[in-house]
Amino acid sequence: MIVKPKYWVLLLLILLGGIYPSNAASTPVDPKVLHIINRLSFGPAPGDVQRVESMGVEKYIQEQLSPDSIPEPQSLSSQLNQLDTLHLNPVELSEHGTTPRPGQKPSLEERKAANKWAKQVLAQAVQARLLEATSSKRQLQEVMVDFWYNHFNVDAGKGRVSLWVGAYEQQAIRPYALGRFRELLGATAHHPAMQYYLDNFQNRADSRPDAQENVRGLNENYARELMELHTLGVDGGYTQQDIIALARILSGWGFSRASQQTDNNFGFYFNPKRHDFSDKVFLGHTIKGSGEAEGEEALDILAQSPATARHISYQIAEYFVSDLPPTTLVNNLTQRYLATDGNIREVLNTLFHSREFWDAKNFNAKFKTPLQFAISAVRATGVQVQNTKPISNLLQHLGMPLYACQTPDGYKNTADVWLNPDAMNRRLSFASAIANGNLPLSSIPPNMQQWQRTPGQQTISTEQRPLQKSPNIPVDAWQLSNTLGNSLSMKTQKAIASSSPQIHSALILGSPEFMHR
Fold first, then answer.
1. How many Å apart are CA 145 and CA 403, to the nearest integer?
2. What's the predicted TM-score (pTM) here?
């Protein structure tokens, strides 16, 4: 059963109670201004609409396409600096607190300490993502991090990947989110999180037993997903023989152990003893046996393929325009990808200036994913986020916990996946709580697994601090409506006008219009 939009406001009114007369809304702003903010960001924060109106849509687009030119708030930088595991590389994360003891299994205490460390690392990765999504001025970059992480998904629930998802995002996704696709593809391919998640670290040319007497040979998992999901697409024209050839090409790719030296901070390691050095034929190209360089040549072939250009273009158009993107738009983006050697920034620039992007029927037509809804609600209220736990809890309840999609295709961004009655009830409860000031977003939680540095003092853990509470201040409905551009339909405005003023903000955040972008 799908909850139809016309029932949403009625449902929220029933949940919140009370119907009383009130005032009307203000004049709406230019729909184009709202459209560009809703698509290039996670939604307007207080002052965003007025700023874009003042600077103009085109200048806003170009600004967001160049995130390095946008200064970040000092408060955000300070919060991220306090997350002490965030910038550790995979080797440092894996070796933290361990004492190599050849031939001995870790003790119970050591296992408990390792589990505690893994939970802390993952918690800080989640906190960092949510802080940046809610507070960063570089909103398009944050949107593209969401897009690319799902495209190159790894699941923290699989073994040691929980230690590496934060480093994976920081090292392999963020730096390349608006760069060239080939660089992004290479960064994800080399990262231990991907190598472990899709089992390529087990991929070897022979069937000799390893140190644990496990006999493993060629593993095709990563090779298959690399073509089906990351590059060519399911209809990309490859065969089973191409999958086998690519698995042979990538044999020996993995990550370093304590005794192995690497020349990179990813922890990537190529083991020539596990590699198939014979010549291969891959997608019609002959690749000479040369070791690690074979993989780089294969990635070049994949990144430059017209099938990859079309697959990436379709997904970008689906994310930014509509669940069923127009063929003409996909074709134009494909050509731009090929003409610019996979320059993501140029593809997006073409998209944001396309006729299809500005077609009024696509305005506010994309149903928000749980992440997009949660972040947009927090941004709209203008609250200074200190505690991201209420946001991560909502994502857990809505089936979209960060870094926890088990399948390699990542979370979807289409309405059919997320629009259902139970999810709507949970969204409306969140809307009510945040509107009434009942979510402790501005409070520092006592059990947060992070270290905070106070000027002139020793570094102390927040576990040693009392809960710093902020007063429960309801969200002002008039300000909220202005932040969102006074964009509610007449039907929604009438429903709100006939309700108690105490629930106006909740009705706005629970409205059909706010559920879309």
1. 12
2. 0.89
